[in-house]
Amino acid sequence: MIRRDYLLRMIEEFIRAMARINAAKKGQQWNEATGEIDQEFARLIGAGPDAVSRLSETELLARLMADEPTQAVRDKTLMLAALLKEAGDVAAAQGEAEESHARYAKGLHLLLYTLGRGEVFECPEFVPTVEVFVHALRDAPLSLRTRVLLMEHYERCGEFARAEDEWYAILEHDRQNAQMLEFGVAFYERLLRHSDAALAAGNLPRAEVEQALADLKQAMTSGHRHSL
């Protein structure tokens, strides 16, 4: 009961803080919004948004896990992702494109990491969706790591055509890398284990999967990787 009360109180306090941040954003009171955001970062993780953007997900999770139950770690990770989205918005509004992209990307990574663990669950309303982050990053070149995380997410959600789009974007990084090609083969072979109905629902019919897999294997054996 104590842990449940602690979690509820933590979430309620965060929701109130998010309301203050959004009110400041609507009024274009950027200094006030920044102050609220910095205060929440300090409360959650003891560092500001720039420092958080530079830390790896492993380092951030290690900080969040300190003396916390598993449920609290998940909730705090989602809070941190939401806060990074707000920090990215404020940076973007002030013309700080590089800083905003770094914050969006880190928030997206944390969200994808959390969604990829355990059973599917409903996120609290304060958590931005994956697509909100993707839209925010639409003008930024996505890293290979971001593409891989997105590909895994879309595949897990049954959005197979979108997963394939990310696979082709990954391939663009280095078409001559044998490991990337093997990664693609494994992807298509996993898809073939799904039913025809599931593949059709994911906008990637079985015939297209089989053809893509055949083309990829042929390119690997013939060395015509540029034709993929």
Mean pLDDT: 89
Tell me how many strands there are.
0
Poorly predicted regions are none
How large a portion of the residues is in β-strands, by DSSP E? under 5%
Shape summary:
elongated
Number of helices: 12
The largest sheet is: none
Q: Report how far the terminal alpha carbons are from each other.
A: 57 Å
Order of helices and strands: HHHHHHHHHHHH
SSE-based structural type: mainly alpha
> What fraction, in percent, of the residue positions are helical?
over 70%
Integer-rounded radius of gyration: 20 Å
Strands, helices and their partners?
Layout lengths: L1 H25 L3 H16 L3 H6 L2 H8 L5 H24 L3 H19 L14 H7 L7 H13 L3 H12 L6 H14 L4 H6 L4 H17 L6
Helix pairs in contact: 1-2, 1-5, 2-5, 5-6, 6-7, 6-8, 8-9, 9-10, 10-12
Task: Describe the structure in your own words.
- With 228 residues, the chain is mainly alpha-helical.
- 73% of the residues lie in helices and 0% in strands.
- The protein has helices spanning 2-26, 30-45, 49-54, 57-64, 70-93, 97-115, 130-136, 144-156, 160-171, 178-191, 196-201, 206-222.
- α6 runs antiparallel to α7 (130-136) and α8 runs antiparallel to α9 (160-171).
- The longest helix is centred in the first third of the chain and has 25 residues, at 2-26.
- The chain starts with a helix and ends in a 6-residue tail after the last helix.
Offer a quick outline of the entry.
This protein has 12 helices and no strands. By secondary structure, the chain is mainly α. The model has no long low-confidence stretch (mean pLDDT 89).
